[in-house]
Amino acid sequence: MNIMLVSLLGIAIFLVLFVIFVIIGFWGSRWRKGNLNMLSEWGLAGRRLGPYISWFLIGADVFTAYTFVAVPSLAYASGSIAFYAVPYVAIVFGIAMLTMPRLWQVSRNKGYVTASDFIKDRFNSKWLAILIAITAVVATLPYIALQITGMQAVLTIMLYGVANAGTVSEVALVISFIILAAFTFTSGLRGVTLGSIFKDVLVFLTVVVVIVAVLLSYGGFTHAFASIASIKGAAAASPYSSLPAESVPAFFTLFLGSAFALYLYPHIINGSLASNSKKTLRRSLSLLPVYSVGLAVLALFGIIIYAVPDALAIVKATGNGLLAVPSLIVTVLPGWLAGICLLGIFIGGMVPAALMAIAAANLLSRNVVKEFRPNMSAAGETRLAKWLSAALKFIALGFVFVAPLTYAIQLQLLGGIIILQLLPAIFLGLYMKRLDWKPLMLGWAAGLVSGLWLVLIANHFGALVTSDFRTGIGLLYIGLIALGVNLAVSLVGSATVNLLHARRNGIIKDRELLGDVKLAAR
What does the CA dihedral 374, 379, 380, 383 come to, rounded to 10 degrees? Predict the structure, then answer.
């Protein structure tokens, strides 16, 4: 195909709306003004976000650019297993309800900015806090890189048929990340929050208009499933309409593991701590299942593409399932509307990438570097976090440029397993004060080693294509298996330490976890 898939009008609208997004990002420094030389102001927006704004911010990490292309791609290639994303988001709010309000309360009372701040005082161990911080950053970096792949999918479609499209795409990404780094540096979480509102409006618009356009123009879902059967054959089409029995354990353990993992990621915790009250946080969390409806429709995009011959032809011609949604957009929508929807996906990579970089930078500056430079001023701590945030964005961008896409996906498979190993210290630590830092570190190591070893075995010591391990009851998500090992070591070890009266007491009082007390200086 030698013609562009997006009209000049669509490209113009894309660029105009992108400029508006950038202006909103820079204007964030003036929104609800605070001293941006303080980490709680720059990295948590002064803890002043209301319920609906908090919901948009958290949603920025549910509807990311990578989610927008990866979930439909999985449905396109594998069928019903992709719908694990629906129950995962539907139940994660319950896990968040049990953990985030309590973490918010103690963070507000003690002046904490990160989960590692809590870990340090809860278990009276700076080394455990450092370990948690580094682990969280390692698990987050591939996540940032994958947002760029979602942005690349948009540029691939927009530049389809253009000479030197690869070079133009790379230049566009570099310029976009320079702009992103600049407004994140100046506005912090405020700019990201305003950008998330703009992004989510465009994303929900995209979900609605694409599904309506396809159903009106190409028939209902029955036609889509019939098209799969005619293209692939009845036997190969079966996993698209029903979940194979052997995949049921993998489906359940995958959505459970994903649900437990989400609120362990530092950017999700960061967004939660930015709420202005515990009541506000609970209200925003209660709205989270709305996103599961959007994800269900998003997964269906990977099915309905089989009913749209032109979109299917693009995906087959490129051999890239990540182009399923962008291909649908440019083939079923008018050019001007396609430009709007493609921008929604594009900035759907920029917003979460910025939030992830801010959260990771907070951890590195406050919980790693400052532990070795305790005399660092509050302004110096924030200044370092700003520069680290910018550096992390470009490290992720550089990784995407020099490494194949499969490497980033493989690292993300490991990222979910790695982040789950923080659950005993963070989630259980909110409720169990008799845990000890030494068994928690041993549990972390046991879970990590067992998880990585099982991944290697499951993939026959080759390229990482699966995070499921075959057991006597079927395929199970390795992250949950490794978490079980971690929990066993942490709980048994802590019980033993308590029996020996060797536990080091933390410095957080119960009332600081449950209710308002005078804010402690930190």
Answer: 140
